[in-house]
Design a protein that fits this description.
- The radius of gyration is 20 Å and the shape is globular.
- It is mainly beta.
- It has a domain of 183 residues: Beta Barrel (Porin).
- β10 and β11 form a beta hairpin.
- Helix content is 14%, strand content 57%.
Length: 264
């Protein structure tokens, strides 16, 4: 039995290595193409810090960037610094850490952007073990934005899929959201946020599903020079109804986000 378990563990580790190699083979050629002989100063390049806080995922800064690789395409990359112990950390150690890259496609004469990305997670929360591993999870995602005059909308879908099996329980998440927005001036905009995140927990070959949060509410955003902004969303959380609890109540949610372009 011990030999069988060791063989299974080896196969799972090899699967993780294979996925990481495939991810590297896809991302690195694009990154190398983006870093060709053209100097960074002459190529449209961005780097943005987004600071977020909400009741579900706590405090989590995100650094994202892009570099043009064509007239309507850009290499994109990001890193998320997850900080809450609920994602497998232990008093600030063994933190769940996410890094990824993708390509943004600009369509419809600049009005539409589509950005598929693929991320890799380090940690121990999704794989269910007692040690941190690279390839704890893999994160395919798709983001879209559309703008027409004063109206714009952003939407996204993210799947945090467990990649390795280090313990008896593996965990996954699916999150999808949409946020239509109206811009009233260069300084003020407002809209509505709909955001639904579901859990998938697998134990002994059996997977169960439930809702982590189910938010709907307004937000207001203030934007200043260089596109830096502060946004506050709040409203109703319908998690009890999504999970069909015996006596559901509508709870509250809130989310504070600051977006700061980093200029060198």
């Amino acid at each position: 039995m011990k030999t069988i378990l060791l063989n299974v563990a080896s196969l799972l580790h090899l699967r993780c290595v294979a996925v990481l190699l495939v991810w590297s083979m896809l991302a690195l050629p694009i990154a190398i193409h983006a870093a060709d002989s053209t100097s960074t100063a002459s190529v449209p390049t961005t780097l943005t810090l987004s600071i977020n806080q909400d009741p579900a995922f706590g405090f989590y800064p995100i650094v994202s960037g892009s570099r043009s690789i064509g007239a309507n395409t850009a290499f994109t990359f990001y890193g998320t610094f997850w900080t809450i112990d609920a994602l497998g950390a232990d008093k600030g150690l063994d933190l769940y850490t996410e890094f990824g890259a993708g390509v943004n496609f600009t369509l419809a004469e600049g009005a539409l952007n589509l950005n598929p990305q693929l991320g890799i997670v380090g940690g121990r929360f999704q794989s269910g073990g007692n040690r941190v591993v690279i390839g704890d999870g893999i994160v395919p995602s798709l983001y879209a934005s559309y703008a027409l005059g004063a109206f714009s909308v952003i939407a996204g879908g993210i799947y945090w899929a467990p990649l390795r099996r280090e313990g008896l329980v593996q965990r996954g998440f699916v999150d999808y959201y949409i946020a239509p927005t109206v811009t009233f001036s260069d300084f003020v905009s407002a809209g509505v946020l709909y955001d639904h995140c579901r859990n998938a927990t697998t134990e002994s070959g059996r997977t169960t599903y439930d809702t982590l949060y189910h938010w709907l509410g307004p937000f207001v955003r203030f934007t200043v020079k260089n596109a830096a902004s502060l946004q506050f969303a709040f409203g109703a959380d319908f998690t009890d109804y999504s999970n069909a609890v015996a006596r559901p109540i509508v709870r509250d949610f809130y989310k504070l986000s600051a977006t700061i372009p980093i200029v060198f």
